[in-house]
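Fold this sequence, please.
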Amino acid sequence: MSQQKVVLLLGSNLGDQKKNLETALQMLKDRGIEILKNSEFLTSDPVEFASSNIFCNIASIIYTRLSPIQLLDLVKSIENEMGRVNDSKVSGGYADRIIDIDIVKYNELNFISERLEIPHKKHLYEREFSKILLKDLSE
């Protein structure tokens, strides 16, 4: 498979949030993911759940040869290695998390499966912090 241009959105609201994001990005690099560009870090309030913990977020453009599902498996394994215990798809709701890595866009692909939807419509069209980060990436 040729190189695919992918946009990821990473967030953390537990522990040292910025360090968690940097660690996750380094783990992606260590697994052969080329990081082309990162947005600035942005703090935001939790969305769709109540918490007193503020999020730190970053958007990243990467190149990968992985398929969408292979990439999903990779980011889920990084989340697990970093100590994330709850997954919103499994638990049915959002909660505080040490790391969250979402695949927002994968080239111009439209893809829907039980585990993954690309593009990630909530991040593209509904969540203000996502729109800010994605705009930062495009400048």
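Strands lie at 4-12, 34-38, 42-44, 55-64, 100-106, 111-112, 117-118. Residues 17 and 56 are 6 Å apart (CA to CA).
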